[in-house]
Amino acid sequence: MPTGRAYRPEYRRNYLPPGYSGIRHMLFIVLFCLGGIALGIAMLDNVAPLEWLTVPLTFLYANLAEYLGHRYVMHRRRRFLGLIHERHTVQHHRYFTAEEMDMDGLEDLRAILFPPSLLVFFFGAFALPAGLLLAWLFSANVAWLFVVTALGYYFSYEVLHLAYHLPPASKAFRIPGLKRLQRLHRVHHDPAVMSHGNFNITWPICDWVFRTRERGGKGLGVRD
User: Fold this and answer.
1) Is residue 131 pLDDT above 60, yes or no?
2) What distance in Å separates the CA atoms of residue 33 and residue 28, rounded to the nearest whole number?
3) What is d(CA 107, CA 158) in angstroms, rounded to the nearest whole number?
4) Phi and psi at residue 214, in whole multiples of 5°?
């Protein structure tokens, strides 16, 4: 079964929609996230000190959701969620291997970023109801802080994941800490590790808590 650059022409033939534009895909995510964040900030009104606790709590909740979703949905086929497993484990991990992590061009964003339809679905199915519930239980400020933080976290997910698949000579890797995060993700793309280690694509908090952080070495995962 071909992987890496040997698989990419097959993926592009079968899964790249006609007229696909990586720029449009990326712009949709940027405008959706930053627009939602700007709206949420504009709606805040005299935030009380305790209401600000929503930000760190939402951040930790999002980190846990990222970890659980990646570990138990993206890497384990679940009923009604098989498409997510197919897109991530079967397609993304064949497209990008630990040895060939870098993208060839903007059309490769199709294999990196979440499709706009899934972004709209997850926001409508999860973030919006949660925000409405928080507004009812606590206050509108708490609800908007939840939305702002959740969108900010998701945006960091997409930006960091994209950065991990940039060419090695990219100037982005001059950003302190980015190479270290990229290495954790590259180790996750090792078939010997991907089903049991480095499930936080962004900040490896839950990987540390649940002892699934792997540093990797010579093709095998090495636990911290």
Assistant:
1) yes
2) 8
3) 16
4) -125, 130
Let me know how long the chain is. Answer: 224
Q: How far apart are CA 151 and CA 182, in angstroms?
A: 22
Judge if pTM exceeds 0.85: yes
SS3 state of residue 192:
coil
What percentage of the chain reaches a pLDDT higher than 70? 96
The burial of 9, by beta-carbon neighbours within 10 Å (0-12 exposed, 13-18 middle, 19 or more buried), is given as: exposed
Beta bridge partners of 223: 214
Return the amino acid letter for 3: T
Closest by alpha carbon to 165, among 38, 62, 22? 22
pLDDT in tens, 195-219: 999 999 999 999 999 999 998 755 4
- What the block records as the tokens of 143 is 């609800």
Model pLDDT, residue 223:
44
Identify which of 131, 186, 141, 187 has the alpha carbon closest to the alpha carbon of residue 163.
186
- Closest to 62 (Cα-Cα) out of 154, 195, 189: 154
pLDDT at residue 221 above 60? Answer: no
Cα–Cα distance between 32 and 11 in angstroms, integer?
Answer: 27
**What is the residue type of 65?**
A
